[in-house]
Every structure is written in structure tokens, then in C-alpha cells.
User: Fold 3-ketoacyl-CoA thiolase from Mycolicibacterium vanbaalenii.
Amino acid sequence: MHDVAIIGVGLHPFGRFEGKTAMEMGVDAITAAIADAGIAWNDIQFGVGGSWTVANPDAIVGMVGLSGIPFTNVFNACATAASATKACADGIRLGEYDIGIAVGLDKHPRGAFTEDPALVGMPSWYAENGQYLTTQFFGMKANRYLHDHGISHRTLAKVVNKNLRNGALNPNAFRRKPMDEDTILNSPMLNYPLTQYMFCSPDEGAAAVVMCRADLAHRYTDKPVFVRAVEVRTRKYGAYEVNTTFAPVEEDVAPTVYAARAAFEKAGIEPSEVDVIQLQDTDAGAEIIHMAEAGFCADGDQEKLISEGATEIGGTMPVNTDGGLLANGEPIGASGLRQLHEIVRQLRGEAGERQIPGDPKVGFAQLYGAPGTAGTTILTT
Assistant:
């Protein structure tokens, strides 16, 4: 068994890019990652790729170079990138390869998941009336959680406000304009208690990560970042998730709880040791809920932590320093690899204006894909 290191990361900006395909964005991300690693494409021994909109991301090898490498396509909803990361890391960890790449890419149409009938098979008025299943579920879940744990509606706005401020410091983010809390609260209500600006936007982008055997990393970089754990878990019967089977919702916890516990146990690290955190903030309520599910606080403590600035870039537990999904949007296949790109930059001290203070050594990333798949990754210097 080999330890695994990340030696290169690459990102195509997230947003809207008319006339550019998801595959072309993926090529840009791969090119940036291999340049960051200081290697050539021919040094890559295998690849893993994931996408929602591209059925065969393996075809990207025809665009970057037909070198004959094995390439595996993966898909796991919003946890696609965690699955790609795990498959790539495991191929190296188990000794089958010395160096590989994970890439994620997507190009979602405007209104994806809510208004595009061709994509979701529903008429546009479902979105206009706030009746789309996933967003409706997110609203119901957030409403119940806030009610049960005494968290205010304004705390949701504080999450969005923080992430958009962080996004303004990120040249690769989709939304780069800060927004005050009242504007967020007073924007159109989509699925109570979530207003328009409390949801992320499906968009376009790509990200890639180059990994190698840790004992070889010094050949390529003097700042390796080590993959300590990647864990993926699905929900159990009774968990309160989208499309849940019939059972009392108190019967079991969400899959993020199991994925996070497994990752911390494998890495031999406690949540209190994490310096920088990336959480799936598909909506503002999700970031709040995942703070507790991942083990960073108790249920209900989020109100005080967020109010006191704990989750800010300069706080004690910085969350979504690059703006998260709320600022970057979510091209599904690329989203989780964007999280790793940000953590690697933070751990290297290369995050520019959004660099957290001190000498960060541990990063944590979490993904949640409906109808109930969670992925967690722990990186260290």
C-alpha cells in the first residue's frame, strides 16, 4: 500500500462560457493541472473523469493526447468528484499506478434542474411555483432543521453573504459581487425558508487534480499535499434524504455523518484539527446542516459560530473560502475537484487575498449528492 500525494491542480473558471464545450473546459483544467505538477501529459499513467452532461468524458484523451492510458468514467450525482478522487487515489494506493489524474467537467443549461423540460422532464412552471422536487426538499429540510435547533432565518443570509464576499476574492468564481443580508432575505422566496439567492446556480466549468505515489512526490514539487482519506457513503433506511424510503425520519442520520466519521478515523485526525473546510452549500441551509453532520459543531451551535465569524476566512473554522457553490455555482462533475483545488491552494499558501492566516496543515472537503450519497476527503501537508 502506498501513500498518495497531490502534486498538481488545475481549474477552468466557473460560470457561463458561450461557444465553449465542457470537454474543452476539461482540457484547459487538465493542461493547468499537469503544468502545475511540472509534468507532461505522457507522464500520466491513467485517468478518471466524471460529468453529468457528458456521457463519455474518457473521450477527452483524444483532445489532450492519445497515449493509450486506461480511463474510467464515474458518476455519482453531486458526489461525482469524490468518486473520481477515490478511484484515482486507490489506483495509486494499491500499487497499480504511480501517477494519475482525476478530472471533472460539466456544462449545464440555464435553469438546469428547475426550468429546463428537456433535462428534468418537467414544465417551467414547476420552477416558477417552487415545486421542483430537489429544491422543495432542500427548503423543507432547512425549515425543519432551523425550527428544531433554534436557528434564525437571518443566519441563512449570513452564510450567503459570507460566501459571496469570499467569491469576490476568487477570480475563478461565477458570482463575484457581494450582497448584503437584507437583499438576500428580501429576494423572491422559492422554497421556504430559502430565497432566490440562497440557492446555488448550476453552471459550467472543469477542474483536475494530479496524484502520485507520495514517495515520488519530491520529484515534482516541494509542496506535496497528501490524500489521507477519501470516503463515500450512501444513506441507510430511514435517513432524511431526497426520495427517502418510508420510515421515521429520526431512525437514522444522513450519509455525510458516516462518510465524515470514516474519513476522520482513517486519517487519524479530529475535526478540531482541520484548518480549512469545504462543504456542499447547494443552498445556504445545507452549509449549516453539514457543519454539524461533518462533526465540526453540535446541532444548533451554528447560529453563534456564524454570528461570531468562526466560519470567515480569518475565523477559527473557515468554511468555503473560495465562495463555495453559492459563489461558484455547480457544474456537477467539477464541483468537488474545485473544492480540492481550493484546499491545495490554501495548504500551499497560494490562495492570494482569500488565504487563511497562519500555517494551515489540514483540509476537509464534503459533497452530498441526492438522493443520498456523501463523499468526504481529508488532505494534509
Q: What stands out?
A: The chain is about 35% helix and 20% strand. Residues 114-120 have pLDDT under 50 and may be disordered.
